[in-house]
Amino acid sequence: MQEKGTISVHSENIFPIIKKFLYSDHDVFLRELVANAVDATQKLKQLASLGEYDGEVSKLRIQITINEKLKTLTISDQGLGMTAEEIKEYINQVAFSGATAFVEKYKDKGQQQQLIGFFGLGFYSAFMVADRVDIITKSYQKDAESVHWTCDGSTAFELRKAVKKEVGTDIVLHLNADSEEFLQKHKIKEILNRYCKFLPVEIEFDGEVINNTQPIWIKSPSELKEEDYLKFYKELYPFSPDPLFWIHLNVDYPFNLTGVLYFPQVTQKLEHSSNKIQLYAKQVFITEEVKDIVPPFLMLLHGVIDSPDIPLNVSRSYLQADSNVKKINTYITKKVADKLDELFKKDRKSYEEKWPSIELFVKYGMLTEDKFYEKAKDFVLFKTVDSEYFTLSEYPERVKEKQTDSEQHTIILYANNVDKQDLYIQACKRRGFDVLLFDGQLDSHFLETLERKLDKVRFKSVDAEPVDKLIGKSEQQASLLDEKEQNKLQDIYKQAIRDATVVWSVVPMASDELPVVITVPEFVKRLHAMAQLQPNAG
Ligand code: ADP
Fold this sequence. Notes:
Elements: E1 2-6, H1 15-22, H2 28-49, E2 61-67, E3 72-77, H3 84-106, H4 112-115, E4 130-138, E5 147-151, E6 156-161, E7 168-175, H5 185-195, E8 202-205, E9 208-209, H6 226-236, E10 245-251, E11 257-263, E12 277-281, E13 284-287, E14 302-306, H7 316-321, H8 323-346, H9 348-368, H10 370-376, E15 381-383, E16 389-391, H11 394-400, E17 410-415, H12 422-430, E18 435-437, H13 443-453, E19 457-461, H14 467-470, H15 483-496, E20 505-508, E21 516-519, H16 522-533
Parallel strand pairs: 2-8, 12-14, 17-18, 17-19
Antiparallel strand pairs: 1-6, 2-3, 3-7, 4-5, 4-7, 5-6, 8-9, 10-11, 11-14, 12-13, 15-16, 20-21
Helix pairs in contact: 8-9, 8-10, 9-10, 9-13
Bound molecules: adenosine-5'-diphosphate.
């Protein structure tokens, strides 16, 4: 058999276009080819299970080999293979039309960079790195002849008989001059490690199997022990401290999604964490860019999400509007809220111990997602300056007696810096008032939200007013100085304590134990806290 022909394609020559559009991430060619090899292997196993193939399928592997001399990279699978007819159908036509459609669809949109990596160009991505590609394949079908297809990146291909005894496919890439880096073992290892680490078929490279074919997220939670989750975490993020707890996601209706999300220990500011949630589609790594799929406050979590129902070949704005993506987002939020609720109810002490690490998630979530707020209001905690914890419903009850003003508002006193505000805190305590610690990154926003949502509760910083005035009931003590003396003292203090943004008010002789108290009005405090949250606050 010897045949020559022309690949059917609408554009003159698609390869320059593919190369141009895909330049940003050449590495994905390997993911695409290995993914095809996995598919071919799984299909053969399926055929065997249906009784349509009687060869041995229990040990099927994919092998990747480098030949430095010939400058080739070969991906070999023991999958179902292709007949000459199938090559003509699948390789010569289908893929090309897919690629053409892609280019046609997106050529005017200026979004190519973003799409790369989401849009698998499949087999033809091989031409990003190779100037000739051979397919040597033998179909599983009885008496199928093995065939050799070769194409040099023009639209012409050659198809001839080959000598291949075993069922399966070898894809041989003759690497182009710009792509010789793919002859380096460490480079290939790195790519395989990124994209292929959890593929379901064994992949052998450089004498070893590089992947875990049974990652825990595909298993049922009932088969798994605590150490399995911890071990998997280490597999994902080798140098990170153990996570606090985790959520196993497993749903198949109305969308298909599996995964494990871990709550990390907070050891540093989370936004600097390099551990990200990884998105997979059928165990193929896709991206760490999970924005829109996971609500922003949960992007601080770690772990894996695997869903074939997340459209990968479309632009971001489309993704946001996709109904599955919306449902997935809601589902994940609910799962996280349910887990926190369960932990809180099951073992409050251990929940309180974990609170410093989960506080940021919970507050961020409450600030940004109303649905989450509704659930989290039952398990968000207030911490007193003496490290006691209370819920949103417990705390106002606790302080109601002493800390209610004339308008029947419960006044919640808070400090945001226990060292600097110690004198104020002590003054409060002496009067039997309770002080909360609100010193977190999001706390100034958080207390405003709570004031808005909770009836009859007002927050006041311990230094907003002289302590006897904070609750608004007792009158300020009369000063021992006359007005003139007071003004003079005010002037002296105002000169001494200059702050560019804060208006300081000096209240002389305001309290019993301190001759002078410096206060910062609550609204100034909040303005100041807000300003500090701005990215370029001085
Ligand atoms: P896609 O995988 O998105 O369908 P590809 O261009 O990657 O597009 O591949 C086109 C078709 O070629 C596949 O659907 C499959 O039928 C066939 N094919 C590709 N690689 C292999 C392989 N290693 N073994 C068997 N068939 C393959």
